[in-house]
Amino acid sequence: MHISQNPQRSGATELTSEQLEPEVTVQAEEFVKLPFKGPDLNPRVKPQSKVLALVIKQRVPVPAGSIAARCGEGEVTIEVKQNFLGNGQLIRPSDLTLGGCAAVDAARHILHFQTALQGCGSTVMITDEALIYSFYLLYSPTPIGNTVILKTNPAEVVIECHYQRRSYVSSGAVRPTWMPLATAMLAEQQLHFSLRLMTEDWRSQRPSSVYFLRDMMHIEAAVLQGHHVPLRVYVDSCVATATPDPNAHPRYPFISNHGCLSDTKPAGAKSYFMQRILEDKLHFQLKAFKFQQDHRKSLYITCQLKATKVSVPIDSQHKACSYLTEANRWVASGGDNKVCGCCESSCTEPRWKRSLAADAGLVQWEGMAALGPILLEESILPEKLTALQAQEVTGAASYSSMALLCGVGAALAVVLLLLMGAIICSRQNKPSGHFVST
């Protein structure tokens, strides 16, 4: 490439292409610096992490809001939502009872229970500062539809009402000072009877109401004395039913005739009254049982209790008698066994004797107490053991037979070997014969 210059200019010379290279190079640099920019053909890809971050939030348990209770002066009101378990499934109203008592209303999916402080199987505990009434909500699920399966477990909820002992509970206006005194006198005449399932050592209440048919139920009958004179409690009669109604059928009266425990005599079970330790408590044990052709597997016990002053002697109307199969006779739990002589006939006193007792100042208090539902499970362990023992006997007999056959076979084999050995030895030792001719 050549560029011409004006020849008249002094010192003009002719420039070659090599001398113009820097200018061309400058123009190329200016072309590269243009603001127009093409697409990036090799974009940088940001690496993505393959680790997923899982945020796990710990669930904090919240208190259940399906039960509400109100403790009044003489009664308690309990409301339970049908979504009792909190899983969105409504329970059957018949599956939930308050100490064996059914709900009085089930409107708007809320079960309403209402009972006196001494009703529906309540128990009472006295402390230095309060009277504590305990109620038990028992959930016993039934099979779904026409099936024999259960999707939930039984549950028990304890509800307690606390009343201070050194004050009077009242929701009304202030009354004259003589009314609390009259109320206290009336309270002394109203005793509280109770039944409880106890542990085998009789020291505490049994935490579960589930029994197997081979188990023995330990039951405590008690009377709450309060500020009353010392009292002695008796179990006048008891009946077992499959429902909370003591008059329902089937029913099994196992204590009758004013304190005669008759379960031992027909069944042969070791059911009897225990010897008294405290006068205001009476313990008896009853072997678990179920009703024939009844698939509810639940049991309710209702007893008529009564109490007298400790100074009143034990007689045919106030006793605790048990039939001992080993001794083949009736025995009294405290007192003379002669008071049990009427258990085979009738212990009801004639009217003239009752009038004489009333004239003599005999005072007694009576009340009802209930237990239930008591859940019963069939015991399959003995059957399994019997089958296993039969298998063991059969296996032992088969093993003995095989061992005998093997012994006989071994003995025969030894005898045959000995005979064969004797024959072989006799043949080897026999002299060979020679014929002599003369």
Number of helices: 5
Average pLDDT reading: 74
Strand order of the largest sheet: 9-19-16-11-12-13-17-18
Helix fraction by DSSP (H/I, runs of at least 4):
10-25%
Order of helices and strands: HEEEEEEEHEEEEEEHEEEEEHEH
Structural class: alpha+beta
Spatial gap, N to C terminus: 158 Å
Number of strands: 19
Silhouette = flat
Could you tell me the strand content as a percent range?
Answer: 25-35%
User: How much is the radius of gyration in Å?
Assistant: 48 Å
Which regions contain 5 or more consecutive residues with pLDDT less than 50?
1-32, 167-188, 382-388, 430-438
Largest sheet: 8 strands, mixed
Task: Briefly characterize the structure.
With 438 residues, this protein is an alpha+beta fold.
What brief labels describe this structure?
438 residues, alpha+beta, 8-stranded mixed β-sheet, 4-stranded antiparallel β-sheet, 5 helices, 20% helix, 29% strand, flat, disordered N terminus, disordered C terminus
Task: Write structural notes for this entry.
Helices cover 20% and strands 29% of the residues. The chain has an eight-stranded mixed β-sheet with strand order 9-19-16-11-12-13-17-18, with no helix packed on it. The longest helix has 49 residues, at 381-429. It contains five helices and 19 strands. It has helices at residues 21-32, 178-189, 264-267, 351-359, 381-429, and strands spanning 67-71, 75-81, 96-98, 110-116, 123-126, 130-139, 155-164, 192-198, 210-212, 216-224, 231-241, 251-256, 260-261, 272-273, 281-287, 298-309, 321-324, 329-332, 364-377. With 438 residues, it is of the alpha+beta class. The radius of gyration is 48 Å and the shape is flat.
